[in-house]
Amino acid sequence: MYTCTPTQRMANLKKRVIPVKGKRVLPSSGPTSAPRRRQRIPRRAKTAIALLSGALSLCIGIIGALGNLYLTQLRQNQFSKNVVFSQNYSLRNALLDIGEASHHETPEDISLFEDDPYLVLEVFQSHLVRLTDLRALREPGEDLTSLHALYIALWESPDSAALVFDLLVNLSYGMELTAGEAVTALSASLNDSAQYLCSFFGVAQDFTDTIATALSLTAHTAQVDVEPVCQLPEYPNGCESASAVSLLRSIGVDISLRGFVDEYLPKQDVRISFGCCYGPDPQQYYAGNPDAGQGGWGCFAPVIVSALKAALPQGSGYTVCNLSGVDLEELSLYLSFGVPVAVWTTTDGKIANEFYQWQSYDQTQTYLYPKNQHCVVLCGVRPDPGTGSALYRYMDPLTSQVEEMGAEQLSACYTSMGCQAVALLPDALADCICCA
């Protein structure tokens, strides 16, 4: 076996070194490889890649546009609340459980500043007859002979008609001149006039309150104390709840607006899915939440009736009555009894002809809700000598101030809202009047 010494190995290694431009490089063990060339992409492949990139960009653009359109529609549905324009839609006919409409014939409206004494006397007597019937229901067995005798005595001479006419006109002008006076001032005037008629016609003084109410109805003069309640800033959409709290506080129930909304007002959310609104029946639940800004819509009278029944303490001596369907003129009866009434009207004093819409959760029903819906508390009425009509007073929850509106304008708004009204009546009076 041949072996090399270390010196011979180094000599052999030096022989194998190949100098390259002054450098020593060890030769490669394999064959010399040729330099690699850069592969070119075919033109067809470039075209295909460009088309795919364009298609992808187009798809991304379409998806972005559709997403923007969806978000825009979502915002429109959320903030405009799907406004539907309708000039022929009747909310009164749409409310299926609107309540018991009044079956009493309301005397024709008159102007005390133009009509003759006998027409005024006829209206006064018609109110007196109706109030006598109510009294007979409230006080069964009471002797009403002297009241019935008054019907005949009123027509015995022209002086009787002139006397009643003068008393009514004085009451009307007194309301015009002292519109800002307290309720007690009007009550005293009515009571004094009623006592005078009792003395003049020989009627028992026990019937003074009935005659005073008849005078109030005939002269369109009534004023009721109500507790002012402002819905702002906490509840921008809580006019119904604020009006209900005003009714409760007016009879001495200590309750806050927040407590009423949180504990007694039945509510269900309105959801928006793929641009469509889904919500509850506004006759059963408040749609949304009154403190949620744009997220709160409102409710109809049956919801407030339900909430009031839950909030009214047992043994309070009052009954929650749904007076929906009663004409505005008929509501003056309750004002004359000293009872404020919550009524559904509009924020701008115009009839409701634009409506929000949403579907039921199961998509089987479509609900419409007036865009400019509002709820106020009627607390008085007085004649307007300038027009010969009546001016109604109401507490507006938006300002908590007492405002006035003409009978014709208010009646149009009230009717367009379906003639919805709610009141807390004394039990004795509620027993005589049909309540829903």
Structure, described:
43% of the residues lie in helices and 17% in strands. It has 436 residues and is α+β, with helices and mostly antiparallel strands. The chain folds into two domains: 89-103 and 224-430, Cysteine proteinases (Cathepsin B, Chain A, Alpha-Beta Complex), CATH 3.90.70; 117-219, no CATH class. The strands form five sheets. Strands 4, 9, 10, 13, 14, 15 and 16 form a seven-stranded antiparallel β-sheet that branches. Strand 6 (271-273) and strand 7 form a beta hairpin. It is elongated and about 160 Å long. The N and C termini lie far apart (126 Å). Mean pLDDT is 83; it is low at 85-89 and 96-104.
Treating each run of at least 4 consecutive H or I residues as one helix, how many helices? 14
Low-confidence stretches: 85-89, 96-104
Oligomerization status of the protein chains:
single chain
User: What name does the CATH topology of the largest domain carry?
Assistant: Cathepsin B, Chain A
Mean pLDDT: 83
Measure the end-to-end span.
Answer: 126 Å
The run of helices and strands is: HEEHEHHHHHHEHHEEEEHEHEEEEEEHEH
Specify Rg, calculated over alpha carbons.
41 Å
- Mind describing the biggest β-sheet? 7 strands, antiparallel
Number of strands: 16
**Number of discrete domains:** 2
Give structural attributes.
43% helix, 2 domains, Cathepsin B, Chain A, seven-stranded antiparallel β-sheet, 14 helices, 16 strands, three-stranded antiparallel β-sheet, 436 residues, alpha+beta
